[in-house]
Amino acid sequence: MSNSLIVQVAMAEEAQPFIDLADTVSDEAIVGGAAFRTLTFGEKSVALVTSGIGAVNAAHAATIAITRYGAGIPIISAGTAGGLSADCRIGDVIISTDVINLDADVRAFGYALGQVPRMPETYVSDEALAEKLFAGDHGQPVARGRIGSGEKFAVTDVALTLRKDFPEVVAVDMESVAISQIAYKYGSPFVAVRAISDLCAPDGTEFLTHIDDAAVRSVQVIRPNF
């Protein structure tokens, strides 16, 4: 049975809702610290990857996943994110229109803010996959928007700078841009589906309080498409 999707998350808390819903769960394979499982949902098989937090871990795991399962299989960056825009609320689910690197600044050489040299300004999500995920009644708020990724957890002072520099970014995480860049290089369809766990609060306590239910909300949007 071939996999219909690759779903990549950063943390065990984000992986658990997928595992809880699965009909079967394979033994865990650990490769370079990343965890790989195969889940079945009826007649569908899904590769679940838990990378660890941050861009390097995410890129490492995505590269292994794409070479292990195949470049033609869509890859979804799932889990939680911080709400950056004024319209975000805890529990909202954001399906990416595109993803941008919040740490890249090579404007001195004529590149746009957020653009890695010789890479696109943003990584545009696969529209057919995004629309399929967006369609239907999810029973919860779901929106499309730009997601940004950086290596700083976006507490209040970081968020203020990001809102100024990246006014079109709706939500922020630490992995999606790394996954999207790897997907771009391999020609794999990509989209991020991230549920808002916090609103870039001063000390991160919102994130700790809402990580579990936000992860479940992300799964609820992805699950009908297995």
> How far apart are the first and last residues' alpha carbons, in Å?
13 Å
- CATH topology heading: Rossmann fold
User: What is the CATH class name?
Assistant: Alpha Beta
Query: Which CATH architecture?
Result: 3-Layer(aba) Sandwich
Number of domains: 1
Q: Spans with pLDDT under 50 lasting ≥5 residues?
A: none
Question: How large is the count of helical segments?
Answer: 6
Strand content: 25-35%
Number of strands: 11
Give, in order, the helices and strands.
EHEEEEHEEEHEHEHEH
Share in helix: 25-40%
Structure class = alpha/beta
Overall radius of gyration: 16 Å
Shape: globular
The oligomerization state is single chain
Task: Describe the largest sheet.
Answer: 5 strands, mixed, barrel
Biggest sheet, spatial arrangement of strands: 6-10-9-7-11
Mean of residue pLDDT values: 90
Name the CATH superfamily assignment.
Answer: Nucleoside phosphorylase domain
Can you tell me about this structure?
With 226 residues, this protein is of the alpha/beta class. The chain has one domain: Rossmann fold. It is 32% helix and 31% strand. The protein has helices at 12-21, 55-69, 127-134, 156-165, 176-186, 205-222, and strands at 3-9, 24-25, 29-31, 34-41, 44-50, 75-83, 93-101, 123-124, 142-149, 169-173, 190-198. The chain has a five-stranded mixed β-barrel with strand order 6-10-9-7-11, surrounded by four helices. β9 (142-149), α4 and β10 (169-173) form a beta-alpha-beta unit. The longest helix is centred in the last third of the chain and has 18 residues, at 205-222. It is globular. The two termini are 13 Å apart. The mean pLDDT is 90.
